[in-house]
Amino acid sequence: MRTLSKELKKFVGEKVTVQGWLHKKRLLGGLTFIVVRDRSGLVQVLVKDKDEVEKLRGLQLGTILKVEGLVAADDRAPGGVELHEVVLHVEVPVEFESPIEIDKPLSHESSNLDTLLDYRVVGLRNTREQAIFKIQSEIQRAIRKYLHEQDFTEFKSPKLLPGATEGGAEVFKLDYFGKEATLAQSPQFYKEIMVGVFERVYEIGAAYRAEPSATTRHMTEYTSVDAEMGFVTIEDIKKLLSGIMHEVSDHLWKECEAELNMWGSVKPILPKEIPSLSMAQIHELYSAATGENTVGEKDLRPDEERWICDYTKENMGSEAVFVTDWPASEMRFYHKTQDGKPEFADRIDLLFRGLEMVTGSMRENRYDVLVRQLKEMAGGDPESEGFKNFVAAFKYGMPSLGGFGMGLERLTQKMIGLQNVKEATLFPRDINRLAP
Question: Which runs of E-coded beta strand occur in 116-255?
Answer without folding.
Answer: 153-154, 160-161, 173-176, 179-183, 200-208, 221-230
